[in-house]
Amino acid sequence: MYEQIKLPYGYDALEPAIDTLTMETHHGKHHAAYTKNFNDAAEKAGVADKPVEEVLANLDAVSDEALRKALRNNGGGFYNHNLYFQTISPDGARVPEGKLAAAIDEAFGSFDALKEKLASLAAGQFGSGWSFLSVDRDGKLYATASPNQDNPISEGTGRTPIACVDVWEHAYYLKYKNLRPDYIKAYMGLIDWKIVGENYEKAIG
In the CATH scheme, what is the code of domain 20-86? Predict the structure, then answer.
């Protein structure tokens, strides 16, 4: 059974950047629904025993079009939201260190340049979607955007997302209304780069 991430902090802990009601709705309702629907679809498709990454990387193996769509949307929603909530913290490390810091400098020139790139991709995503920081098997980093609940795994890139920015309206509209860039700026200040660094090292083995 796929399990929704349990937050190590309260729904009010990210105030004022992300308000309590948004957290209650986003984690307690939206993410819970993606988790339930993904479990249901995976059970019907006979893939509930596989890691979510494997399911998303092999969607073409599911012959039933409706089930494949359900797995893509709900599996993506489940995976993306687990990553989203895992990598933010009220008191986390606000700058990367070690191998991740070196990889960021190599790929983007500087940490500030990476943040600008992720924010720009998120702000420019038409409609619902995400921006992702992902890594390939050689440790090279990429900043990209994906629509809906897609991600670099379901898109077949072979890369592993290690951080993300959610720009579905449910992530910010209650507080920020149509001011998406203001939400993105606030969210970027919540990313715990120690956790992102752990994700990076795990992905490259």
Answer: 1.10.287.990
